[in-house]
Amino acid sequence: MFLTFSCLQYFSSSSRIKQLSRIHTCASEDLPKTVPLESDDLLKDCAVCLESRVQQIIDEYSDVGFLTIEDLDAYVERLKDELKEVEAENANISGAIEILELDSQIEKNQMILKSLQDLDVIFKRFDTIEQIEDAFTGLKVFEFDRNCVRLSLKTYIPKSEHSHCQQHFENIPEPSEMDHEVLVEIMDGTMELKNVEVLKHLGPKPVVNLFPILS
Q1: Tens digit of each residue's pLDDT (9 = 90 or more) over 2-23
Q2: How many CA atoms lie within 13 A of 87 on its CB side?
Q3: Which residue among 65, 129, 173, 189 has the highest number of C-beta atoms inside a 10 angstrom radius?
Q4: 126-173, pLDDT tens digit by residue?
Q5: 100, exposed or middle or buried, with CB in 10 Å at 0-12, 13-18, 19+?
Q6: DSSP class of 68
Q7: What number of other Cβ atoms are within 10 A of residue 15's Cβ?
Q8: Beta-carbon neighbour count of residue 104 at 10 Å?
Q9: Same domain, 108 and 191
Q10: Is residue 125 part of a domain?
């Protein structure tokens, strides 16, 4: 009766070890493709090691019929120890895979956060452009890039009331407005104003003026 019970313990332990070995051998095929390559390599290495150890035990103690009761008890205890080690390694592998998955999710969340921050900067620039156009009459934005906004500024010129000037320029049409191109620079990554520059006068007399805002 004792021999039968020991045999049952042996075959039960051996069956559990074989099952764990098959799980580790096939686990890499069941993992999602999003799991990093490190988890696949870790799982494959452990599966190969476990498979080799289990096969060694099975080959060494397969001939149970020739074992004595004392030997069988010793082998069963050894199988129990091996089973505990396999279960501990399985828990460690599961924990390592979970950590790798969490790291991957953190990296994805950081990328999403960076994209949202970039969109927020773009939105603030559009909002600033709209505020500039609303604040100034005759000012239109026609180009902008990362930290530069180009505007078209229309300035109105009052008619001259000096009689001498009227006689001197009586045959020359006096313009009522002038167009300028304005370059507005902002600090990189912020909406803080860095510099404002009047690039050119689009009328008959080109003029270039520079008005630094910040040194």
Answers
A1: 344 444 444 555 555 555 556 5
A2: 8
A3: 129
A4: 777 777 666 565 667 777 777 777 777 776 665 655 545 555 555 555
A5: middle
A6: -
A7: 10
A8: 14
A9: no
A10: no
